[in-house]
Amino acid sequence: MWASGRTNRESKMPLAGLAGYIVVFFSLWTFYNFEVASVFKMQYPGLYRYDVVKLLLWTLPVFVYLKYENRAAFTALRLRSITGAGVKWAVCVSLFFVAYQFIGTIVIGEELRFNLDFAANKWIKGVILVGFTEEILFRGFLLQKIAAYINFGLANLITSLLFLFIHFPGWLALNMLPATLFLKIALFAFIFIFSMMQGYVLKKTDSLWVCIVIHSINNLAANALGA
Q: For residue 145, what pLDDT is reported?
């Protein structure tokens, strides 16, 4: 499938529909972050903690569309069991990103510490659910839909740019961008490279679970170092 850059015709999403899906998703996520998130957090803290809105906007529509295509979601998304090779990829890539987090902390001059006693909100949203919600949409769904039209490398590049851009509404709405230009560029580069590597991990292992595990471990390290 990946070698030719094309999927079976029955799973090929109409190009206009794919573009529309991306535009609508980005628009809704931007509106939510700037106009809804702060109110939702105050009025429904429990639901906010469990990231209900992200599950509704990022994950549920993917399963609904695959149901419309009459495809088995777990098969279409490559939510297959992890093989021995997949375990090796998960361990090696996770260690790479954990090491990067540690080195990055030292380079920017912050105190080096590793604290797992951070807020429940970060555990639920930033570690447990983040890999599931983000990998389902970007690697499991969009990467494969885009790769139905172009070769894998270019599809992975486009998906990674989209993955970078989707972080901006949250960064800007919550004023979370780093102060200096150097740190901004470093953050953007990391998000982009992370996404590119995740795409190749999916290609090599044929299991989205490997990507989900890596994503969650990376965020665990980031939260523990920043706790």
A: 97
Model pLDDT for residues 129-150, shown as the tens digit of each residue? 999 999 999 999 999 999 999 9
Is 92 among the domain residues? yes
Q: Tell me how far the alpha carbon of residue 61 is from its chain's centroid.
A: 15
Range of the domain at 147: 9-226
The predicted pLDDT at position 111 comes to 77
Give the mean model confidence (pLDDT) for residues 145-172. 97
pTM beyond 0.70, yes or no: yes
Domain total of the chain: 1
114 contact partners, CB below 8 Å, separation of at least 6: 224, 225
- Give percent of the chain with pLDDT exceeding 90: 71
Torsion angle defined by CA atoms of residues 193, 133, 222 and 155, in that order, rounded to the nearest 10 degrees: 0
CA 176-181-184 angle, to 5 degrees, is 45
Residue 112 is assigned to a structural domain of this protein: yes
Domain assignment present for residue 2? The answer is no
- For residue 32, what are its two tokens? 């939510």
What pLDDT does residue 8 have?
Answer: 44
**What does the chain come to in residues?**
227
- Cα 60 to Cα 53: distance, rounded to the nearest angstrom: 10
Q: How confident is the model at residue 210 (pLDDT cuts 50, 70, 90)?
A: very high
Helices (H), the chain: 15-31, 37-43, 45-49, 52-54, 60-68, 73-76, 84-107, 120-121, 130-135, 144-146, 152-165, 168-173, 181-205, 208-226
